[in-house]
Amino acid sequence: MNDKQEKFAQAYVLHRNATEAAKAAGYSSRSSANQGYRLLQVQVVIDRIHELEQQLETNVNVIEELENQYAYAKSSGHTNSAIKALELLSRVRGANSDVTGSLDKETLETAIVGCLNVLGEEKVVQLLSKCDFSEEILEEGKEEDEEDEEELAP
Fold it and tell me: Where are the domains of the chain?
C-alpha cells in the first residue's frame, strides 16, 4: 500500500465519502471522484479501511445519548427532533439488537403509545382519520361525547 492509499483509507474512515477522501489524500479535485471510486475497489485499501474502523474508539454511549436527546426534544415540544431521535435509536438498536423474534403485544403497544404521545393529540387524530377504520372510531367518539353531555345536563 502506498502513502496516498493510506491517506485515502484514513480520510475515508473520517468522511465516509470517497471523493472527499481522495481530495484529502492528495488527488486533484478533477479526478477525485474517479480516484475515490477506483480506490474503493482495491482490496488492500478495503482491508485497511476495515482495520481502521475496528481501531476507532469512542467514549460516547450512542444509545444513551440518543435516549437523552429524545427525552429533551419530547419535553421541549420539539416533535420533529424527537421523531428523528427515535428513528436513529431504532436504527442503532436494530443494528445491535439481541432480539431475534417479533415484539410481544404489550411491548409493541407501549412503543406505539410513546410515539403517539410524541406526536400529540392533533396529529394523532389527523393520522387516525387516514385509517380504514377511522369512521368507526370517530362515530364511537361522538356517541361517547353525546352520552357525557347528557350526563352533565341538569
Answer: 3-55
Distance CA 124, CA 119 (A): 6
Query: Is 3-55 CATH 1.10.10.1400?
Result: yes
The per-residue b/e assignment along 60-74, b for 16 or more CB within 10 angstroms, e otherwise, is eeeeeebeebbeebb
Q: Which three three-digit cell numbers place residue 6?
A: 493510506
Helix, strand and coil percent figures for the chain, each rounded to 5: 75, 0, 25
Q: 22 vs 1, 44, 87, CA distance in Å?
A: 15, 16, 31
Distance CA 76, CA 134 (A): 30
CA-to-CA dists, residue 41 to 6, 36, 44, 62, angstroms: 14, 9, 9, 31
Q: What is the pTM of this model?
A: 0.41
d(CA 28, CA 63): 39
Cell numbers for 138, please give them.
Answer: 370517530
Mean pLDDT per 10-residue segment, the chain (154 residues): 93 90 94 94 94 77 84 88 85 58 74 83 84 72 65 64
**Terminal-to-terminal C-alpha distance of the chain:** 89
